[in-house]
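=== RUN LOG ===
request id: a7f3
mode: sequence -> structure
chains: 1
length: 268
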Amino acid sequence: TLLLPVPYAALVVSLRGRGTRAVLLCGGLALPLPIWAFVAVSSTGYLVTLASMLLVLLAAVGLGWFRGKLRWNLLAALGPALAIPLYFLRHLEYAAWRIDAFLGPDLFYERLRMGELPSLFVGSSPELLLAEAAQGLGRWVFWAAAGLIVLFAALLLRRIRALHSRTGKLLALSAFLPLFLQAAIYWLYNLGWWPLGVLSLPFLSYGVFFLLVDAALAGVLLSVFRMDALVRDTAWASSAPAPRPSALDIPLGRGQLHIEYRKGAQHF
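=== RESULT ===
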């Protein structure tokens, strides 16, 4: 399910230039698409995927991809999500139990918030790597991890913002968000401030399947960054044809291929 935001971004791209109904359709589809996560009893997986898809949709609305007034498009994007997920989470027995333990006087969460790791979990839970490291090295581990996560997010968001292609921006965002949300939730859980389960700390947690999924998301990011110079997708927004660039630079190995367009040229 963590890979779903990428094809979802492609769906949003295919509906660009449409009206508020298209936004409502995308907002509604975001709810059932990651339902497989519930089968695996992973409400966190559902929430991460749902949040990633909705943020991609909101980014498209903010970029002016859809016709109509902005406030109605925002309401169409968020309306279905605000009405349904809380009902599902509250009526799932496993998620309800975790939330009740989080809100009530539960020893596990209280110990984590005080910076203590119950002895039962020492060396046995890949979900608590940061808490275990902080137990031995000190609380600075949490703030170092938070700094690395924020730095990672800031650098990637800056790179995504610099992309010339709007399609590339959405695709890159759809791959970035699951990685960032996984890391942020993992950090909160180890501090005792996330009521549900965790997925992984990208590229550090033990687990082959998590590593494969995170590597695939990173691969999408790198592909978008590399191919940005080849994508031109602004012609849909205007009835006038997009002007041909005077030159094109294509990344190639350690260098780049530079192509210049000259009027009347027979070859290049």
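=== NOTES ===
DSSP finds twelve helices and two strands in the chain.
Residues 235-242 have pLDDT under 50 and may be disordered.
=== END ===
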